[in-house]
Write a structure and sequence with these properties.
Elements (H helix, E strand, L loop, with lengths): L8 E12 L6 H7 L3 E2 L8 E6 L2 E6 L4 E7 L2 H17 L9 E12 L3 E2 L1 H7 L3 E2 L8 E5 L4 E5 L4 E7 L4 H15 L3 E2 L10
Antiparallel strand pairs: 1-5, 1-6, 2-3, 3-4, 4-5, 6-11, 7-12, 8-9, 9-10, 10-11
Length: 196
């Protein structure tokens, strides 16, 4: 029985976006007027604003900078920031213009559909590091797209450092192709993963 090799299945786990509002923010005032916030300046200099939809946590600093985490897409990260800015404005907090939102990191998980020979990968895969006594995964630094991929013997991978969503499946596919070239993938018996 032969099958065409499966495409890696990827799933975004976290999108981290930074925000610049170009205004200073009074965190005490925000904490006093806003629901769903946590603020303990003795423990942490920022305020934590949690949204249920999209489910995110945004760190807000008095410098006017924010960091939104927990979104499952670029769109959700931007939606969360716009929702928070709108709520702040409705509460009387002055935020001029349109805040600059920049995606800093996208973390995704994926399955390559087959086990990997990490010992072979450690000696044949360029830009990689493998120290199984310290960490069970191999660290692979891909240049294009510029991401770091953690490879596990099970065929599961974690992609981190992507700046755009389209880089996630691109990185997974490129990694799989490179691993197949180097004969690192343990293709299940009876399957043919050659390109058509």
């Amino acid at each position: 029985m032969t099958l065409t090799r499966p495409k890696p299945t990827t799933q975004i786990q976290n999108v981290v976006a930074s925000v610049v509002t170009n205004s200073t923010l009074d965190l005490d005032e925000i904490a006093a007027t806003m629901p769903n916030v946590e603020f303990d300046p003795e423990q942490f200099p920022g305020l934590v604003y949690r949204l249920k939809k999209p489910k995110t946590a945004t760190l807000i600093f008095n410098t006017g900078k924010m960091v939104c985490t927990g979104a499952k897409s670029e769109k959700d990260a931007k939606r969360a920031v716009h929702k928070i800015v709108k709520t702040l404005r409705e509460s009387g907090i002055k935020i001029p213009g349109r805040p600059a939102i920049t995606v800093q990191n996208i973390v995704a998980s994926a399955s390559l559909g087959a086990e990997l020979n990490l010992e072979l990968a450690a000696v044949t895969l360029e830009n990689s590091m493998y120290e199984p006594e310290q960490f069970p995964g191999l660290i692979y630094r891909m240049r294009d797209p510029k991401v770091v991929i953690l490879l596990f013997g099970s065929g599961k991978i974690v992609i981190t450092g992507a700046k755009f969503e389209h880089q996630v499946p691109e990185a997974a596919e490129k990694a799989l192709n490179r691993l197949l070239e180097l004969d690192i993938v343990r293709v299940p018996e009876g399957e043919d993963w050659s390109e058509e």
